[in-house]
Structures are given as structure tokens and as C-alpha cells.
Amino acid sequence: MTSESNGSSVKQPGSQTLARGLQALELVATTPDGMTIQEVADALGVHRTIASRLLTTVADFRLIKRSTDGKYRAAGGLAALARDLYAGLRDEATPLLRRLANSLGASVALFVGERTEAVAVAVVEPKNARYWVSFREGGRHPIDRGAAGYALLAGQPPLPGESSRVTDARRDGFVLSYGEVEPGYWGLGVPLKQPANEPAGCLTLITASEELARAAIPEMIAAADKLSGGAT
Asked: For position 85, what pLDDT does the model report?
């Protein structure tokens, strides 16, 4: 007598290995300080040898790399994938970001929402400013904090129990934050009006000057409207 188990949740060896490899990649990519082999093994609930093999395989594809301190961190291949994934939006936004950065004298970026994170897919720094805040393309932080995170959530349909910061950002068309991602720095986030099948996006300015952040609001909103197709 045989029985069928089409609804079984037991994974085949190949799919289980793939799932663990993707979990290892996600763990490392979302931990800015990096993770050791043992930390990954503990998080996945597997033996250190298995974790080492998974990390080595992912590193072979240049998605992560092992640093001199023995920890694995996100590598250039991961940023390249992000650039390719959002190539159209990124290419359209970059000239506008360049004009904004030079006009405002501050770093500006295009962020997109990826599940629980805000990810910078394009970053432009001003050419002629005496000083500015620098941050890297491909950088990410939790989506539930900071100007970029609030703006990304504001670009999505309202959710029960959402933060008042998100509700206000949706109403006002912008949101300011201070010290929530980087201590001592102001963020200005403006949601983009994205099609329903596209990830949430926003324009973000980062500066040490509250005055500059507040003065930039009209220009940032106008730029977001243009990128969203709201201006001719």
C-alpha cells in the first residue's frame, strides 16, 4: 500500500541546501558587522562544517566575502545584482539625483524597499560642496526607521497599527528624521509614486544640517514628482 504526500512540508536535499544557502546569504547581507562561520551555523541550526560549505559556495559567486577578521560580509556581486535589478529606475533617477546633489550641496539617494529593509540603489554626492555626508550604494537598514524607511512605507497602502511617522509622511509627502540610522545626521525622505507591481521607492537626502534638510523639502518633492511622472 502506498500513500501520496503532495502536501508534505519535507524538503528534498537539493531544495534544502538551496534554502540554507539563501538563508546564509540573507543573514550575512543584513549584518553590517559581518558574521563568523559559527554564528551562521548557530543561526541556521546546522553543524559548523555545513555552514562553512554554504558560505564558501555563496562566496564563490562573489555575493559575500571573507574578511581578514574571519567574518563574512556582503561583497560586490550583491550590489551588482541590485544595480541590474533596478537598472531602469536607477538610470532614470541618476541625472536627477546629480542635479539635486549639486543644487542642495548634500548627498542624495534613491532607495527601494526590499521586504523589511531600505536599500540604496543609487547614491550621488555633490561636486562643489565643502563637506557632505558620504554613504555607500548598496547600503541597507531596517525599513521601520529613518527618513528612507518611513518614506518607503508611506509609498505603500496603509497598514493597521502603522507608525504615525509613516501616516504623516503619506499625508505630507515627506518625512524628516534625526539620528535614527546614523547618529548626528538628518534625513529627508520623499516617497515615489510607483506602479502597483513595482517595489516602493523614495528619494532621500542625508545631511548634518537641520536647516539644509528643511530647506530642501520643496525641491526634493518636485524631483520625486518628476521621477514619478507627475511633472512634465
From this structure: 58
CB-neighbour burial class of residue 116 (10 A; exposed 0-12, middle 13-18, buried 19+):
exposed
pLDDT tens column, 108-131: 999 988 878 898 888 898 887 666
Together in a domain, 122 and 20: no
Element (H, E) at 24: helix 13-29
Q: Are 132 and 191 in a shared domain?
A: yes
Q: Are residues 145 and 187 in the same domain?
A: yes
Confidence of residue 61 (pLDDT cuts 50, 70, 90): confident
43 neighbors 20 (Cβ within 8 angstroms): no
Please state, for a pLDDT cut of 90, what percent of the chain lies above it: 50
Q: Flag whether 210 is in a domain.
A: yes
Report DSSP state, residue 42: H
pTM here is 0.65
**Contact by Cβ (8 Å): 118, 146:** yes
How many domains does the structure of the chain reveal?
2
Instruction: State the residue range of the domain holding 57.
Output: 13-74
